[in-house]
Amino acid sequence: MINRDGYTISLWQQHISAFPLGSTLQAHVYDVIIVGGGITGVTTAFLLQEAGFKCLLLEAANLGYGTTGGTTAHLNTLLDVSYETIGKNFGEQVARAVAVASANVIGFIEKMAQEYAIDCGFKTADAYQYAQNKEQDDALASQATAATNAGLDVGRVATLPLPLRCTSAIQVKGQAMFSPLPYLYELAKEFENIGGVILENTRVTNIEHKGKVEVTAGEHTFAGRKLVLATHIPPGINLLHLRCISYRSYAVAARLAQNDYPQDLYYDMEEPFHYIRSQEVDGEQYLIVGGEDHKTGHHENTNLCFRQLEAWVNKHFNVLEVTHRWSSQFYEPVDGLPYIGQLPGEEEDVYVATGFSGNGMIYGTIAALLLRDMLLGVLNELEMIFDPNRLKPIAGFSNFISHNADVAMQYVNKLLPAASLHLLADLAPGEGRVIKYESGKMAVYKDEGGELHSVSPVCTHLKCDVSWNSGEKSWDCPCHGARYNPDGQVLNCPATMALEPLHVAATVK
Ligand code: FES
Description:
It is built from twelve helices and 25 strands. The protein is an alpha+beta fold.
């Protein structure tokens, strides 16, 4: 089993061992340094190396440590942000281009799986989206029209292949599913086979421009002509942190009492919606259901999210046993489309890919294909569409404002009275809490042995206070989604530094 950025264990994570690194560092300036060992980084590294660039891939932990190890791996052209929204914000031509790009990715992954004989359970399927009341019927109808106009093969169906209650439903052909980590590993292996270099446990802490890009990771410095930040959200402080809102999404995998696993992809229209599929992993079938999304750091009792999701699964399926529960992070762009290209406010040699919503497998691969074209100087119509420097103040305005109202609220909350230290007495083992005392605050975690671990709750990114995430046993920042383990070590960008360690006994009388 590999590590991931939290306490829970995903279905994929449990069924794979550490990647057998086969490359050694070479002492020269790389053409491209890629930071991040998820699907975006690994695919980008592979494609660029294949195109003739000498590439170095740096991963802070291990390949698949982030959301690629926790995705539910839907390969769908029926995206989270509807074509109706994309069309309204960017026009129908853009909606069509996004639909084509998404379909191309499914074809690309299928081709890779065949060409390299990757045992990743790739399987084509249909997608069903279904409504359960009149309001949802209307919304589904207009989304279906927009999806058809964007070029998707959309049909209306009276019933679903699953016994799920619906008042209307659509069927979209040409979708797929797979196991993400075997696919990721094979691409990484092929990357190494053609001369690419991978370093794990190498967290980037500084980036400088000295004629070329110099990347510091611990005591090491690496030089490259170009830099790609495939870290889900860029590290450090950037405009994109105000244009992407971080969310957590929850998933469970279950064995069913009968062998009636869904063969296709399903999406309801609840808010947040549920997403359903199944996958065979190591000879066993699993139902995989996701949902219960919320903004990162905005729910402390995230165990409740798991319980609610499990209750939903039990209500709709004949469950023998829930085998896995896990959660993952995703970033919602304020105007509905990812940001792929040159990083705003940086030198021209720094590239970024972020804001994939819940479609990380699709957009991560689109990003890799687009970045390859950009670095090769090949014209690609997606370059302008996903340009991180695009200005869409009206399209993203309301989300932008409400998101930043949340950010502002966090600052105000710092001034409000909070629990005093004696309340730590009721802190259960395995739980954490931010407490306020006299002149300061502490984030305190009590481990299973009763020992207290205390750090400053002040996020090292832009100084919001972190919140406890009970399900993942992590400190999560509600402002831009940075996450830390109970000891304050960074789990997720954009923070690059650990929370400041504090000592309960020394600090509090
Ligand atoms: Fe930006 Fe914490 S992630 S302040």
